[in-house]
Every structure is written in structure tokens, then in C-alpha cells.
Amino acid sequence: MEHLNSSHFPTRPSELSSRFTHQVLPALYLLVCLVGVVLNVPAAWLLLRVPSERPLVVYLKNMVGADLLLLSTIPLKVGAELRMGGRGLQVAVCRYSAVLFYSSMYVGIVFMGLISLDRYVTITRRTSSSSLLHRVGVARLLALVTWCLLLLSVLPNVLLTSRYPLPNSSVSCMELKTPLGLQWHRASTLSSVALFWATLLLLCSCYASIARRVFRSSRRERGGGPCRRSGRSIAVLLLVFLLCFVPYHACRVPYTLSQTAGAGFSQHTRYVLFQLKEATLLLSSVNVCLDPLIYFFMCRSFRESLLRKMAGGGQRRRAGERRSDKRNKVKSGPVPNEKSRPCLASQAIPEKDCRPAGRLFQILS
Questions:
Q1: What is d(CA 122, CA 227) in angstroms, rounded to the nearest whole number?
Q2: Against a cut of 0.90, is the pTM above it?
Q3: CA separation for the pair 313, 308 (Å, rounded)
Q4: Residue 5: other Cβ atoms inside 10 A
Q5: Rounded Cα–Cα distance for residues 8 and 230 (Å)
Q6: Where in the chain are the domains?
Q7: How far apart are CA 244 and CA 281, in angstroms?
Q8: pLDDT greater than 70 at residue 127
């Protein structure tokens, strides 16, 4: 296995791995998977209980579905990196799991763009076309079209990854593709990157328009009202988008071009681009851990349900503690009162405190 400080850099794609990609990245992916499951499973449960009465809720439900689909592919990816399951698992990851990973990631990206557009429409509502985009039926249709188009675009990647790996060699996904599969992979990668930059442009445009509307409304009325809240929510969305996806797509195109025969990239450049691609891809997967923040800030029903569940859990915990305290008091019996204790002659206490006991003694005698 070659490393960056060596004098020779590998030439085959399957030899571009390093200790970082085989040991560090699998552990980080497992951490992302664990945190993502802990955050997204309750989020999905709460979102499914929210009625789909607004386009925003429709998009958020599809986003959490895409995140859960991406999380389901991470254990297979980690197993293949750790050489578990043999060559059969590595081939399955190349043909199916990796395709689902990328498709679910871009589905989430598209729904982020649709959410920003919905927030913009909610704030402006100027034309008949904007009111059409604000209908729940249209939102469901856009969600269905998004899933269908992206799944159809990646289906050839599954069908054209049909070669068998070379014997006595590590499996490389690119070596499993047919010549037509290599061309389709390059075209689909470039189109996916173009889709990302178009979505980023939409996000920035919507945020700039909402920020301008917030500034105007804050000058007219104190606080800015709903415009300010929408501005904060789409700012969180834009921040998550920039943090998770921009680094990966900045190096995705040069890495894809470096895989093409005759591209003119040196061995050192190809090696470094591979390491950067793998590191930034991990950063893109961290998006599944940050999306619950978007649900919290975007959807008031989700936020209220979460806070209500948290408050209910605290109340049940306090009620349980009170019941436990009562049971302990019953088991230990009542605590005797100092005023009702009879005074003993052997005790050196004031005479006035022994009067009740003295009177009782006189009556009994």
C-alpha cells in the first residue's frame, strides 16, 4: 500500500487507497451512521405524524427518507473498505450500494432547493405561478418526479457495471464498468455536479430575496415577523448546504476527469485527488446528522412535537421520582415527632417540656 510520502504513486484506481481510506474513514463513517440513525429515526417518526398540509412538510418527509436510505448504505460501504464479506461484497457495493448512496445524496440536494423555493414563495406570493407552487398536490408531484428522474439516471450505472473483477487483485468500481458504462458514469457525474451548482444558485437567490424582504419589513415594523423567522430558517439550510456539499463538488470534476484515460494527470495528482474526494465525500455524508436541525428550524409542527415529547419525558421522570420517594417513606414508616415524645426522667430537659407526661402519670396513678 502506497502513501503520500513515498516516491512512487500507484497507477491503477484500485491502488489509490491509503491507511486513511482503509482505517480512518471506515471508523468515521460508522460514527456518522450511528449519530445519523439516533437523530433521523426519531425525526422520521415525528415528521410522519405531522399532516402533509403544506409543501414544506412534503419536502421534509422526502428529505428524511433520502437520509435513511443513505444511512442504510453506509454499513455495506464500511464492510467493503474493511475487506469484510470478500470480493462479493465489494462487487455488490460497486453495483448497487454506491449507486443508492449517490442517488439519495442528490435527492436530498434537490429537496433542499425545493424547500428554499417554497420559503421564497411563502414570503412573496406575488404571481399565479407562485401560488401554484404552493399547492400540496404540486409538491407531491415534484417529489415523485425528483425520485423517478434521479433513479432512472443512475439505473444505467447498475446495468453497465457488469464486468467481473480481475483475479488476484483488489476490486475497483471503475474496472467493473463496460466502455459504455464509463462514458455514462462520466456524463452522469458531470450532470449531477451541474445539478448541484444550479441548486446552490437557487438557494443563494432565494436567501438573498428573503433577506432583502426581511430588511424591508424590519424597517416598517419592529422585529420583522414571519419574514425574519423564514430568513433564519433558510440561513440554517444554506449553511448546512455550503458546509457539507461544496467541498465535495469542488474536487469531484477534476477527480472524474483524472480517471479518464489520456487525461494527462500525473500519478501524484491522481492520488491526491482520490484522497480529497474520499475525505470530502465523508463530509457530504455528515449532512444526514445536520438535517434534523433543518427540520427543527423549518417546521413549527415538528419543533412543537419534539419539545412536547421532551417536556413530557421530563414530567414522567419527575413523577416517577416522586412515586419512588413515597414508596420509600411508606417502607421506612412515619418519622416520630419531637413534641409528641414522652419525656424520660433520666433526660435532663426543662420542666415545662415534661408537663404533658407528668399529667398523664397523675391520671394513670
A1: 9
A2: no
A3: 8
A4: 5
A5: 53
A6: 13-313
A7: 9
A8: no
Contact 69, 102 (CB under 8 A): no
Distances (CA, A) of 219 to 207, 213, 214, 216, 233: 18, 10, 9, 5, 20
Can you tell me whether residue 172 is helix, strand or coil? Answer: coil
Which fold is adopted by the domain 13-313?
Answer: Rhopdopsin 7-helix transmembrane proteins (1.20.1070)
Give the Cα separation of 354 and 152 in Å (integer): 96
For the record, the C-alpha cell of 222 comes out as 419592529
169 vs 206, higher pLDDT: 206
If you write DSSP's letter for every residue of 100-167 in order, what string do you get?
Answer: HHHHHHHHHHHHHHHHHHHHHHHHH--SHHHHHHT-HHHHHHHHHHHHHHHHHHHHHHHHT--PPPPT
Grid coordinates representing 356? 404533658
Residue 238 CA: distances (Å) to CA of 98, 109, 203, 207, 231: 26, 11, 7, 8, 10
Of 181, 185, 205, the residue nearest 193 (C-alpha): 185
Q: Cell for 268?
A: 501524484
How crowded is residue 241: how many other Cβ atoms within 10 Å of its Cβ? 24
- Residue 10 above 50 pLDDT? no
